[in-house]
Amino acid sequence: MSKWKVLVTRHDTPLTGLKLLESRCDVTILSGEAPTRADLIQAIPGHDAIFLSDHSHVNAELLDVAGDKLKVVSTMSAGYEHLDVAEIKRRGIKVGHTPVVLSAAVAEVAILLLLNATRRAHEGRLLLEDGKFQPKPTTLLGNDIRGSTVGIVGLGSIGVEIVKRLISFQVERFVYTGHARKKIGDDLGAKFVTLDELLKMSDFVVVATPLTNETHGLFDDAAFDKMKKTAVFVNIGRGPVVKTDALLRALKEKKIFAAGLDVVDPEPLPKGHELFTLPNFEILPHLGSSTVKTRNDMATVAAQNIINALDGKPLVYPL
Ligand SMILES: O=CC(=O)O
């Protein structure tokens, strides 16, 4: 019996995933540092599965070229805004992603940003580099996490991991918002509130929501206007949940204290962007899941999604 044919979109896909695929399938890997859409379109016909180790768009155009053999699309990511999930499923093609295995790593980055932003780490470094740091009792004072109210926008798997970690920082009160009150929220002692309530009461606002029609542009001028002047804003979800111009205004006009972002719109933030000039702006280049173990686990799950689909079994994490 001929083996299943799988197309992998990047040569530097973790070996955990590649080995698992190769144990059962014929694997083609797009070569080169930056395979183009044309490379993908040329390579896809005749494959049973596509393993996305990048954010290539899978839409009707690509599916038309792929042809009838394609049975499963598997993205090595939790986010899936690059997939036209409705169109993929309409064609009877299975589709999976890799949530949960990255939640701990992303939660660690949320804490990193939250601490850096509230303790003014970037501003301190700039002062040191400029030779302007003066150790006075009132220099670079930040705000404590201890005794604070932390608001989580989106209490999914990542939001839960953030709360679990922050409990040890002696947070006074956790609140969260989303579609509905959740049992895990009750178990963690977190209160379900509206977004407005969360913005008004939180000392730390942490965005851990995926990008959907509902969350797109959720943080605009009006949202930042509702936040405390001392609030720290963290986004580890998706960049377009926040209107970048509104965030810029909020930081420049001191509507809020500071921000820490792992995700931003556009990504990467272009060289010379005004946000880079602000001392109360901390940024990472989307490093949430960038640990060796997490990326290996994501590759394994993405490969297992494919094998399960081809074996006619439920995917580990279907969409
Ligand atoms: O942002 C990371 C992911 O979606 O996996």
TrEMBL record:
Q: Which GO terms describe its cellular component?
A: cytosol
- Keywords on record: Oxidoreductase
Give the D-isomer specific 2-hydroxyacid dehydrogenase catalytic domain ranges.
17-315
Database matches in Pfam families: 2-Hacid_dh, 2-Hacid_dh_C
Q: Where is the D-isomer specific 2-hydroxyacid dehydrogenase NAD-binding domain?
A: 112-288
> What family does the Swiss-Prot or TrEMBL record give for this protein?
Belongs to the D-isomer specific 2-hydroxyacid dehydrogenase family.
List the PANTHER family.
2-HYDROXYACID DEHYDROGENASE-RELATED, FI03731P-RELATED
Q: What is this protein called?
A: Glyoxylate reductase/hydroxypyruvate reductase
Organism whose genome encodes this protein: Microctonus hyperodae
